[in-house]
Amino acid sequence: MSNSTENNAASPLLSSQVKEDSKHEPKTTPVIIASVINKSPAKPQHGSNDQPNEYRFVHQRIPPRTGSQKFLLPILLIGLQILFIVLFALFTDYSAKTDNAKYPAYESLHAIALLGFGFIMTFLKRYGYGSIGFNLLLVAFVIQWSLLVRGWFSSSTDVKFNFEINLESLINADYTAIAILVTLGALLGKTSLSQLIIVALIEVVAQITNEFVNIKVLNVHDIGFSLHVHLFGALFGLAVSKFLHFNGVNSQKQAPVYHSDLFALIGTLFLWVYYPSFNSLLATGSDRQSRSIINTIAAISASCMITFGISSLAGKGKINILHVQHATIAGGIAIGSVADLKIQVYVPLIVGALAGLLSTIGYKYVDPFLSRVLKLHDTCSVQSLHGLPGLIAGFVSAIFAATSSFTEYKHELYEIYPARIPIMNSTEYVEQGIKIENGKGRTGFEQAGFQLISMAITIGISLVAGSITGLLLRLPLFEQLSEDVEMFDDEAQWVTPDDYALKLTFATPYSDQDKRADENQAKNEDSKV
Question: SS in 3 state form for 292-304?
Answer without folding.
Answer: HHHHHHHHHHHHH
